[in-house]
What we know:
The protein is of the alpha+beta class and about 230 residues long. The chain has helices at about 5-15, 15-20, 25-30, 85-90, 115-120, 125-150, 155-165, 180-190, 190-205, 220-225, and strands spanning about 35-40, 45, 55-60, 60-65, 75-80, 85, 100, 105-110, 175, 210, 215. It folds into two domains: about 5-140, Jelly Rolls (Sandwich); about 150-225, Winged helix-like DNA-binding domain superfamily/Winged helix DNA-binding domain (Arc Repressor Mutant, subunit A, Orthogonal Bundle). Strand 4 and strand 5 (about 75-80) form a beta hairpin. Helix 7 crosses helix 8 (about 180-190) and helix 8 (about 180-190) crosses helix 9. The protein is globular and about 50 Å long.
Amino acid sequence: MIKENSDTKDRLARTMWARMLAPEHLRRVEAEVTERFIPAGAYVCRKGDAIEHWMGVIDGFLKMSSISPEGKTVTFSCMLAGGWFGEGSLLKTELRRYDVVALRDTRVAYMPRNTFNWLLDNSIPFNRFLLQQLNERLGLFISLVEYDRMLDPDTRVARCLAAMFNPYLNPACSMQLQISQEEIGYISSVSRQRANQALQLLEKKKLLTVDYGGITILNLEGLRRFPEELPA
């Protein structure tokens, strides 16, 4: 239960899907969702695990990835505060196909499978949200394949940063992103040094500023369309 933690309860209530719920549905969610602290570098879940929860980031930063038999790490996505994941595996009742690792100290909310299925059976708004989220996630993964195969590193960094500001997958409330250059490298499949070079270029283009411990997005549409120049 999360009632003893008012911060968690408040953050949960402000998520996009929770705001759509009827009051009685939200009350059951608040009573049955639990919270865990995951230290930086630790696994939230492992590839091959049984799926028993829908999970959301209360505070922190997670990386969804997989390691090939040859030892190559492929990063699929990153989750920031407000983002929820794992609905596809829950709906298909399959073993997890990826690892999720905390890139920094993170608080994670866990909704039990029974609660998730109860919402599916009783809440039309929740179903509509999931349909939209699955569609957005599919679009993200298709874009990431395109970025990795067709774009140069500078453009890949720009587009991957822009993709993090998806209102369904990562409902950011600020254009300030607390993220290290190493973490940017993870999500863009480039080295930290190459991410630094790309950030310097994007800063010169006035698309973002590099701050201590993070970045501030100045022109989100410009990042999405980089290297295309936007009309003055």
